[in-house]
Amino acid sequence: MPEYLSFETDRLFLRPTTEKDAVFLLELLNSPTWLEYIGDRKVYTLEDARGYIQSRITPQLERLGYANYTLVRKADGMKIGLCGLYDREGLDGVDLGFALLPAFEKQGYAFEAARKLLEAGTLFFHIPEILAITTQLNHNSQKLLKKLGFRFVKTIRMANDPEELLLFAWNKYVFSS
Predict the structure, then answer these.
(1) What is the radius of gyration, based on Cα positions, of the chain?
(2) pLDDT digits (tens, 9 = 90+) for 118-159
(3) pTM, whole model, 2 decimals?
C-alpha cells in the first residue's frame, strides 16, 4: 500500500482510515449522534465495516491521496472520531465531514481536526474551496462550521435523500493560521 499523508495537532493524530479501524468505525457509524445527523449507513457487522472501508474510503484515498482520517488521541491512543475531505457524489466540490463518539463531543476535537484538514487541503492537496453539508437540526455542526470560517451558501437536496441540507463553503483566502 502506498504511503499517504497523516497529520498531527496538539492533541490528535489524523491518519488515513484503514481496515484496522473497522471495529471503531462500526461503533461510530451506529452511535446515536451519527444515526440522527448523518444517517444509517447499513453498517451492522464487522464485515460490513470492512466492506464500507474497502468500497467507500480506500478507493478515494487511492484516487486522490486524501479521504477519511481516523482521529487518535495522543494522550492515550484512543480512537475518538473521524474527519475527512470527501469527493461526494452530488456535490460540485470537496466536502469536509466530521463525527466523534459521543463521549468526545464538545471538547474541541472536531474543531482541531477540521482546522488541520482545511490547512492540509489548501497546502498539500491544493483545494481552493471546501464545502460542508449538514442537516438543519444539527446546530452544533453549523456552529462549528461558522467557527471554522465557513459561510452558509444555500439549501440543497442530495440524490436519493428527501431531507433538505444546508450547504456551507470555505475559501482558502479566508484561512488564517
Answers:
(1) 15
(2) 999 999 999 999 999 999 999 999 999 999 999 999 999 988
(3) 0.93
The hierarchical CATH code for the domain 7-174 is 3.40.630.30
Q: How far is CA 165 from CA 142, 152, 157, in A?
A: 11, 11, 6
Residue ranges covered by each domain of the chain: 7-174
Pull the grid cell for residue 20: 484496522
Reported as a single tens digit per residue, the pLDDT across 29-70 is 999 999 999 999 999 999 999 999 999 999 999 999 999 999
Amino acid at 139: H
**H-run or E-run covering 166:** strand 164-171
Residues 109, 100: Cα–Cα separation, whole Å: 8
CA 132 and chain centroid, separation: 9
